[in-house]
Amino acid sequence: MGTRGVIRDCMGKWLFGFANSARMGDLLKAKLTTVVEGLSLCWNVGLRHIICEMDCVEVIEACESSLDRIERRKDYTDII
Protein backbone atom coordinates (compact mmCIF):
# COMPACT_ATOMS: atom_id res chain seq x y z
CA MET A 1 0.00 0.00 0.00
CA GLY A 2 1.48 3.31 -1.03
CA THR A 3 0.39 6.82 -1.86
CA ARG A 4 -0.74 8.42 -5.09
CA GLY A 5 -2.51 11.57 -6.12
CA VAL A 6 -3.29 13.97 -8.93
CA ILE A 7 -2.89 17.74 -8.87
CA ARG A 8 -5.21 19.73 -11.15
CA ASP A 9 -5.72 23.42 -11.78
CA CYS A 10 -8.96 25.33 -11.13
CA MET A 11 -10.33 24.21 -14.50
CA GLY A 12 -9.65 20.54 -13.78
CA LYS A 13 -6.64 20.36 -16.09
CA TRP A 14 -4.00 17.85 -14.98
CA LEU A 15 -0.83 19.55 -13.73
CA PHE A 16 1.09 16.61 -12.30
CA GLY A 17 0.71 13.39 -10.37
CA PHE A 18 2.69 11.57 -7.73
CA ALA A 19 3.07 8.04 -6.41
CA ASN A 20 5.08 6.39 -3.67
CA SER A 21 5.35 2.67 -3.14
CA ALA A 22 6.27 2.91 0.55
CA ARG A 23 4.80 0.02 2.45
CA MET A 24 2.25 1.14 4.99
CA GLY A 25 0.06 -1.55 6.47
CA ASP A 26 -2.52 0.94 7.67
CA LEU A 27 -4.98 2.49 5.22
CA LEU A 28 -5.62 5.61 7.30
CA LYS A 29 -1.90 6.27 7.67
CA ALA A 30 -1.45 5.86 3.91
CA LYS A 31 -4.31 8.29 3.18
CA LEU A 32 -2.96 10.88 5.64
CA THR A 33 0.52 10.52 4.17
CA THR A 34 -0.95 11.06 0.70
CA VAL A 35 -2.50 14.37 1.80
CA VAL A 36 0.76 15.54 3.36
CA GLU A 37 2.77 14.51 0.30
CA GLY A 38 0.35 16.18 -2.11
CA LEU A 39 0.20 19.43 -0.15
CA SER A 40 3.99 19.48 0.17
CA LEU A 41 4.40 19.06 -3.58
CA CYS A 42 1.92 21.86 -4.23
CA TRP A 43 3.77 24.14 -1.81
CA ASN A 44 7.13 23.31 -3.39
CA VAL A 45 5.95 24.34 -6.87
CA GLY A 46 4.40 27.58 -5.59
CA LEU A 47 0.74 26.59 -5.37
CA ARG A 48 -0.80 28.31 -2.36
CA HIS A 49 -4.59 28.34 -2.87
CA ILE A 50 -5.42 24.65 -2.72
CA ILE A 51 -8.65 22.68 -2.53
CA CYS A 52 -8.03 19.13 -1.37
CA GLU A 53 -10.60 16.48 -2.36
CA MET A 54 -10.55 13.03 -0.82
CA ASP A 55 -12.76 9.97 -0.52
CA CYS A 56 -11.78 9.03 3.04
CA VAL A 57 -14.14 10.58 5.58
CA GLU A 58 -11.79 9.78 8.49
CA VAL A 59 -9.05 11.88 6.93
CA ILE A 60 -11.45 14.73 6.20
CA GLU A 61 -12.71 14.66 9.78
CA ALA A 62 -9.15 14.51 11.12
CA CYS A 63 -8.17 17.58 9.14
CA GLU A 64 -11.31 19.51 10.09
CA SER A 65 -11.59 18.60 13.75
CA SER A 66 -9.42 18.38 16.82
CA LEU A 67 -8.97 14.63 16.20
CA ASP A 68 -11.54 13.71 18.87
CA ARG A 69 -13.43 11.40 16.53
CA ILE A 70 -10.52 9.20 15.52
CA GLU A 71 -9.95 6.30 17.90
CA ARG A 72 -6.27 5.88 17.04
CA ARG A 73 -5.47 9.59 16.91
CA LYS A 74 -2.18 9.24 18.80
CA ASP A 75 -0.83 7.19 15.89
CA TYR A 76 -1.56 9.93 13.33
CA THR A 77 -1.08 13.24 15.13
CA ASP A 78 2.47 13.57 13.79
CA ILE A 79 1.19 13.25 10.21
CA ILE A 80 -1.67 15.73 10.58
TrEMBL record:
It comes from the Eukaryota. GO terms for molecular function: nucleic acid binding; RNA-DNA hybrid ribonuclease activity. Residues 3-66 form the RNase H type-1 domain. InterPro entries: RNase_H-like, RNase_H-like_dom_plant, RNaseH_domain. It holds the Pfam family RVT_3. This is RNase H type-1 domain-containing protein.
